[in-house]
Write a structure and sequence with these properties.
This protein has 597 residues and is of the alpha+beta class. It folds into two domains: 8-352, Alpha/alpha barrel (Glycosyltransferase); 366-596, Beta-galactosidase, Chain A, domain 5, CATH 2.70.98. Helices cover 35% and strands 21% of the residues. It contains 16 helices and 20 strands. It has helices at 13-19, 28-35, 37-41, 44-52, 68-77, 81-102, 109-121, 137-153, 159-180, 192-208, 212-232, 243-264, 275-281, 308-318, 343-352, 563-568; strands spanning 288-290, 293-294, 366-368, 373-379, 385-391, 393-395, 407-411, 414-417, 449-450, 458-469, 476-480, 490-500, 503-512, 519-525, 528-532, 535-539, 544-551, 557-562, 575-582, 587-596. The strands form four sheets. The chain has a nine-stranded antiparallel beta sheet with strand order 6-10-11-12-13-20-17-16-15, with no helix packed on it. The protein has a five-stranded antiparallel beta sheet with strand order 3-4-5-7-8, with no helix packed on it. A hairpin with a 2-residue loop joins strand 1 and strand 2 (293-294). The longest helix has 22 residues, at 81-102.
Amino acid sequence: MPQLILDPFRLTASEIEQLIVPGTSHLPELGTARRDLDALNNAPQTQIILAQTESLMESLPQVPQTSYTHYRLFQRTGDRKNYETPYFLKRAQLAGTTLRMFFGQVELKDTVQDYLWSICEETNWVLPAHENDIIDLFSAETGFALAETLTLLGDTLDVEVRLRVRAEIEHRTFDPYLRYYRALWWHKAGMNWNGVCNSSVAATFLLLEREPSRVARALEIALTGLRVYLDAGFEKDGTSNEGVSYWQYGLINFVALSEMLRARTNGAVDLLSSQRMRDIAAYPAKLLLSPSMFATFSDCDDALNFNYGIVTRLMERTDEQSLASLLTPPAVSELISNTNWRLTMMLRNFLWWDGTYYTPTPITDAYLPLGGVARLVTRMPQDAQVVLVIKAGHNDENHNHNDIGSFILHVDNETLLTDPGRGLYSRDYFNQHRYENIFANSYSHSVPRIDGQLQKEGKEFRGEIVNIEMNTPSKSIELEFARAYPLTNLASARRHITPDSNIITLRDVFRFSENPVEIEETLMTWCDVEINGTTAIIRGKHHTLHLTIETPSDARFALERLEKESRENAKTEILKRLSVVLPAQIETQFRVRMEIL
């Protein structure tokens, strides 16, 4: 085996061209599968994946229509759903039929070709929300998926269909990437777009481009960008400030590309072999609340599905065993989502995963000092697990929410106090109006409003975990977050949380240099709530949380049901906001006792 390249991200095009071995397969497992297709067809992981696609087969004759009117809705109203639903459904149905044809359902050939042709007929593979981009996330991934369709089915497809697909990829992906990569804002961005787009385009070149010098040049461009992604998109402790959902999204195509390069260079280029990648791979397990449930900081949902093949291969290459905690039964059964419409990922799920779900392991304390996230874990007397996660950091993160000091209380597989996660993706959610949405601003987070003011967006608005006691019987965390607010007279805002079995104590201490102002403390939940003066009861499905205000003694709970905001953000439940008003004093504190029963 050739010597491993220690810094593959700095390889030149000429060096890459020399390293790629002619005639090698981009996916050796696929060759093995072709030789014994019946065995793979009967494998448990294949049956799981094909079963997921069953519902897609019912509406195959009618290709979903991505119409002009729906495309323009985003420009007119900010709506994304009406165009994106048929867009992703079309690609999911192509993926499902392609896999079934690969496994022997040759009668689906015309359907596969109709779907390929329909995607080629689309005026733009770029979503309307990204219309100003030459190549966006999903146009890059569409090219990768179509290229893999040709690779998987080969000359069983009609020549003119194959030529049309190649021509569209050349026009929409290859030529603009080589010509205009310097103009692509995401090429050297420190966030998921870099990982998705550069990796997908580079993988597509490896699959389809016949000219070695063009392949090498595209890989040089991609690797230069991806080096920035790994350096700037993650903290040195492995934290992704985009949250767990975008940790996965940014890496799925990167892992696929890495394995293609590893195969095509006989192991000389391995993007996953570094300690840096192991640190990044360890991140999601540190935000785990219970199986398939994660902390919802940034634009993240609490229940996540993972691409099992990608996770398995990342675990094998990095030897980061905590990734096994992601290989649990899916939290969400729907097929059409941004994690599982891709043929590229479905294929690797049944080639790289053996269908085994791992037994969940106990969740333990974790701390990401550079990411400003900590998790403390205790147990109730009845042995139910209590997980507390809190966030510091700053308010200029990718997919940022103004949430310094926000925390989550998760008990026995259920969240009682929440960070509400992402709002509805729309035009305004990603422009200057973003922080008018309560899911992005601090109004819907368990942090105070001070003198009527919410936290501000910007890197200068930040917080810091100043003390943490973990991995001991007595646990606590202390966070300073005065700088999250645009108030020059706020000298200190110090949050202390102490979990002790089924009792959690929250104590906030505020100190003003002058001109003290009123403070409104806030606690957020999706559960049903009852209030009675100094007490409140949050009723979960398995447990109740009894809250008692200890300081100030004359303070009272108020309750607000955010029905309109929840409905406008497509939430199936109603978010509730518990609040307590503190009087204006030079130094004041809020102390609440929370008992889980």
